[in-house]
Amino acid sequence: MRTPTIDDDPLVDALSEVFARHGYEGANLRLLSEASGLKRASLYHRFPGGKDEILSAVLQRAEKLFKEALAPAHDDGDPHERAVAVADRLNSYYGGGNRSCIIVALSMADEERREAVTPCIDAWIDAFRVIARDAGADE
Question: What's the whole-model pTM score?
């Protein structure tokens, strides 16, 4: 009998929740296995590098999703409307405040993990810098 396949995005989203809720140290293999619906052996088969490889996949997905949510900041048009569009997308991403933030969770981890969230933080800063500049703020 063949094991059912799990699409990458929903799998990584489920794993992301574990890191966001429990941080890097608290995201143990039992929690990751439970969240993914995969047995530990299957999780290791999918991510042979273990927890660090899982975190890498989670951060790549988070960076992609943040960039999508922040994309309206770089559009043409009224800066206020663009800020509202970004806020709406971020609200949706965070489930109206019901989803934990991977950036916050990892910003309290060791230096290596904090540095790993830098691209996500940079994307936020850049998006709001662009909106503020277009609204008349100086650099």
Answer: 0.85
